[in-house]
Amino acid sequence: METPDxxxxxHRGDITRLDIDAIVNAANETLLGGGGVDGAIHRAxxxxxxxxxxxxxxxxxxxxxxxxxxxxxARYILHTVGPIxxxxxxxxxxxxxxxYRACLALAESRGLRHLAFPAISCGIYGYPxxxxxxxxxxxxxxxxxxxxxxxxxxxxxFSDEMADLYHRLxxx
Length: 172
Ligand code: APR
Description:
Elements: H1 4-7, E1 8-12, E2 22-27, H2 36-45, H3 47-54, E3 64-68, E4 76-81, H4 92-109, E5 114-117, H5 129-146, E6 152-157, H6 160-171
Parallel strand pairs: 1-6, 2-4, 2-5, 5-6
Antiparallel strand pairs: 3-4
Helix pairs in contact: 4-5, 5-6
Bound molecules: adenosine-5-diphosphoribose.
């Protein structure tokens, strides 16, 4: 078994194209789609995803819900709702860590081997990137240490700047 650090990797690209067990969606509490990665995932998965999400009754911030991947190459989607950045005094760090932990717990309960995260809350929800990436790395390392079944976690960067930030923080 590789060390947790070797099992945590940075992927520069489009999360909707990953042919792995599950990709994480940075959704909103309605789970009925949106812009950003949420919009890209719904477009790629097809209309059955929205129909399925309508049956879930939404998802509170900091939690996660699992759906099939439908027309995505990924088998499953773990929808999680990150905190909207409001300056740091509204429990944002705890809620963001909760998103990663909830997805890692779902992956463990379902015996998933590969999981990919977008940079949750780092787009429309305005979370400062360095603070968010630090939380992502710490919680994913925790999840990999506790769950040997999880072979790889990918942190997907949609820009070179985000990829560089992840790589820099992984080395620290
Ligand atoms: N693949 C990987 N990452 C992507 C993709 C993609 N196809 N598209 C966007 N991203 C990146 C963004 O560049 C950003 O770094 O995902 C990260 C999260 O950004 P958003 O998608 O804006 O998500 P978030 O900031 O969590 O805001 C969530 O936006 O789309 C709505 O319905 C969603 O209301 C919710 C809010």
